[in-house]
Amino acid sequence: MILPESFYRRDTVTVARDLLGKFLVANGEALPIVEVEAYLGLEDKAAHASRGVTPRTQVIYGPPGRAYVYLIYGMHYCLNLIAEPDGTPGCVLIRGVQGVSGPGRCTKHFKIGARHNKLPVFHRDGLVQVHDRGVRPTTIDVTPRIGITKSAGLPLRFVAAGLRY
DNA sequence: GTCACGATTTGT
DNA sequence: CAAATCGTGACG
Hints:
Largest sheet: 9 strands, antiparallel
CATH topology: 3-methyladenine DNA Glycosylase, Chain A
Number of strands: 11
Number of helices: 4
Low-confidence stretches: none
Mean pLDDT: 98
Order of helices and strands: HHEEHEEEEHEEEEE
Distance between the termini: 15 Å
Structural class: alpha+beta
């Protein structure tokens, strides 16, 4: 089933952990999420939302269950899912799905780009969806986030060590 | 308008 | 280790 909007209306870390094992569906393909990172609000200097509300970060402050897609280094897209209630910032970076490692490779694989930004992921006919197929991670590894300089070291990266179908 | 920079990936 | 490549945000 498609995860409802309420799934995302929780604290960012909880959403991040619960996203492991859920299926990312786009471009006619479905693969389980195996690696994510949580990005918080003003106190998290590595998060785009830490600069406050701007045209770009507005979606992160908006209602949950939307996609936040942005271009990084002028050549790769990163997919995030908005968490927390409307008005509270927080999002989860999809770093990897089964067989595909790296946020840039992930979006490339699913052909996700700028046109997906701000789209809800809980709609039946949406371009991007997230499904629950009853798959759960066997264990979850927790580590610092990758590729950041600010707020480095925080244990906000979550990796599914295995998947139990 | 101008400018420095980045939640990456790939090749040397 | 360095290049590729461009939207965003800060500043004037």
